[in-house]
Specification:
This protein folds into two domains: 196 residues, Rossmann fold (3-Layer(aba) Sandwich), CATH 3.40.50; 86 residues, no CATH class. 27% of the residues lie in helices and 20% in strands. The strands form three sheets. Strands 6-10-11-3-12 form a five-stranded parallel beta sheet, covered by helices on one side.
């Protein structure tokens, strides 16, 4: 699934506007969309408004009390979805494009939602075939905690994937160690080591251990060995995204990332974003960014420029 277009109305921080996420030449959704603008222009807020719109159709996370409306009004965000043939068959949809009208902060009643779109957005399985919505806020740390508080990895991750909470990364180390050591089966085809290599050139995954707690081991560019907890900031980012893809599967997914450049050198950001795009087949990447290098590399109609604080362009 992909987003082809959004329309915002009465949304705090933003003038009402329709924003295309599609190529003006082919009318196909862009594989990478960059939301940019000056400080305080609302880059992160627009990412999270898209998340809130999805949650109004098929909620996974806990309800948020966040206010979205401008001047006491109810904020709305409509999304034009683009679904492939397999997704249309699953949802029983007749058209490849379907528009959902969403009131942010409110769950659509069953009588107002498209049953097929709901089925596609509500589905959550850790595999390589079902698309997902996945959001990564700027706090992408590696907590040292248990794999699954409730005993169900999928249930816990379903609740956390669209939140800002870095607890969504808490179980990655143990999960990946158990898969690497043959103690756990994965329904995701892509192996962590291969995914990690697409995102980092300064370290290579070499193995796992469970002695003294779960750990993953890497070889640095100078040949030294280090644990997952000793990775540099850019290597940690590679671990978080590659580990996520290996755990939940990101094919046919919409991946929303706030500031992908935060731990990358300017010369590395294009390779890193291309690596993110490669984490799942037919993945759409939507980023909030100020990276001049990334913006210069994208088609102009793949850039949503919010201008300065208080007004979009």
């Amino acid at each position: 699934m992909k987003i082809a277009k959004i329309e915002t109305k009465s949304l705090l921080w933003f003038p009402d506007a329709t924003r295309s996420f599609s190529s003006a030449t082919t009318n196909l959704p862009h594989p990478v969309i960059a939301i940019t603008g000056g400080p305080g222009s609302g880059k992160t807020s627009l990412l999270e408004a898209i998340v809130a719109a999805k949650e109004s159709i098929a909620p996974h996370a806990r309800r948020s009390s966040r206010a979205w409306g401008r001047d006491g009004r109810t904020a709305s965000l409509s999304i034009e979805w683009a679904f492939d043939e397999v997704e249309r068959d699953f949802g029983g949809l007749d058209s490849p494009r379907v528009t959902s009208q969403c009131e942010l902060g409110r769950v659509l009643p069953a009588t107002s939602r498209n049953v097929g779109v709901f089925a596609l957005l509500d589905r959550y399985r850790h595999d390589s075939s079902s698309g997902k919505f996945d959001y990564h806020a700027t706090e992408r740390t590696i907590p040292r905690s248990a794999l699954s508080p409730t005993g169900s990895l999928e249930r816990d991750q379903r609740l956390l994937r669209l939140s800002r909470d870095p607890a969504k990364y808490a179980g990655l180390t143990r999960y990946l160690a158990e898969v690497e050591l043959g103690l756990r089966k994965s329904a995701v085809r892509e192996a962590f080591g291969e995914l990690f290599s697409r995102l980092s050139t300064s370290a290579q995954f070499v193995g796992a251990s469970l002695d003294d707690g779960p750990n993953l081991w890497f070889e640095s560019a100078n040949g030294g060995e280090m644990s997952v907890f000793e990775l540099s900031d850019s290597e940690r980012e590679a671990f978080v995204f590659a580990g996520t893809a290996a755990m939940i599967g990101l094919s046919r997914s919409i991946l929303l990332v706030d500031r992908p450049e935060q731990a990358q050198a300017p010369s590395s950001i294009l390779r890193f974003v291309e690596g993110l795009r490669s984490l799942g087949q037919d993945l759409q990447l939507i980023v909030a960014t100020s990276s001049a290098e990334l913006l210069a590399a994208l088609p102009k109609d793949a850039i949503i420029d919010l201008g300065t604080a208080g007004g979009a362009r």
